[in-house]
Design brief:
- The complex is a heterodimer.
- Chain A has a domain of 108 residues: 3 helical TM bundles of succinate and fumarate reductases (Up-down Bundle).
- Chain A contains 5 helices and no strands.
- Chain A starts with a helix and ends in a 6-residue tail after the last helix.
- The relative contact order of chain A is 0.08.
- By secondary structure, chain B is α+β, with helices and mostly antiparallel strands.
- Chain B has 2 domains: 107 residues, Ubiquitin-like (UB roll); 128 residues, Orthogonal Bundle (Fumarate Reductase Iron-sulfur Protein, Chain B, domain 2).
- Chain B has 9 helices and 7 strands.
- A 5-stranded mixed sheet of chain B has the order 2-1-5-3-4, with helices on one face.
- The termini of chain B are far apart.
- The chains are: A mainly alpha, B alpha+beta.
- Chains A and B meet through helix 1, helix 2 and helix 4 of A and helix 3, helix 5 and helix 9 of B.
- Chain B: Its cofactor is [2Fe-2S] cluster; [4Fe-4S] cluster; [3Fe-4S] cluster.
Amino acid sequence: MSADTSSSAIGEVQGASLYDVDNPAPYIEAPRKRTSKTPRSTRGNFEMAAWLFMRLSGIVLVVLVIGHLLIQLVLDGGVSKIGFAFVAGRWASPFWQVWDLLMLWLAMLHGANGLRTVINDYAERANTRLWLKGLLYTATVFTILLGTLVIFTFDPNIR
Amino acid sequence: MATPTLEKVEAESAASPYITVTFRIRRFNPEVSDTAEWQDFQIEIDPKERVLDGLHKIKWDLDGTLTFRRSCAHGICGSDAMRINGKNRLACKTLIKDINPEKPITIEAIKGLTVMKDLVVDMEPFFQAYRDVMPFLVTKGNEPTRERRQSPEDRERFDDTTKCILCAACTSSCPVFWNDGQYFGPAAIVNAHRFIFDSRDEAGEQRLEILNDKDGVWRCRTTFNCTDACPRGIEVTKAIQEVKRALITRRF
């Protein structure tokens, strides 16, 4: 059966078909068919939590990111004022530490969840999915941990 | 009596309503080849007729091997959903004059389901998802001696989703379904909605739990393809969102 599939294109070009009434082209198995490999149940509230998180974090991020962009790029001299001293001055206040920490976590998780959705929708083979998601989760965890570490252990006197 | 009839016939033959239309049909026959190809048919047809009439003309007069499903031919049985000019429609509800007969009319099988021959697809995965949401009334306790009564308002709540004819035009227009075919699909969710919001039904919670699946309502990306495709004008995307809202509000 599988040998027929691989050589069929050549047979067609030469004009002599490999298929006839007794030997039709192989049937493509329906993906939703229940087999022994089908997981029993994939229910749980994770997908609902992820969906809800996307909406809620999106709303919060609008405020956080637009505020961040305004402060960094528009107000008080624009982008030229940004330097080590400016960052050190802001992170001296716990308010901006929390702001940046919240923005880091929400943006990273929001983006990672969005990309997870994209991978689920577009990657066709289970293996591709596994590797792309592995890469995504690694990058997300690395960025979140590194960012959190920097915010909490930031030393303005470093030289 | 005879004269006016004769005149009418003459007038009609003078201004013939028939035009030549090209039907470009995606043919697939597993007994000939494992690949599908396009084939053109030229037919004389009244543009006020339906695409299904054109297909009949081809099958009956030009090529008897053309294979497609149709049953009632009046938009109720839902057998003849197909992709006409790139959009999922019922061949029996699409008039030729409405889809620009000057250009070739492309007709192919609905996407996302295995093609068995020409325009016939394997509907089993579609009906599997339909069966999974338990599309039947579930009640507890003793059966009433009379009918189960319902107020007009309660009936109105799910009126839109009772119109579904299971033609698969929505599910096979959904890009999430196209990917791996694991998503329940709009049609199954619409039919779950019909019972979840029925005041007489008592298994709403069970159905919501089924649709809370990894491949349940949360995979809907609100692309509105299903609403565009529905030949019955059901607001499919709205129904899916209502199921999502019910899942969230009934859990918290």
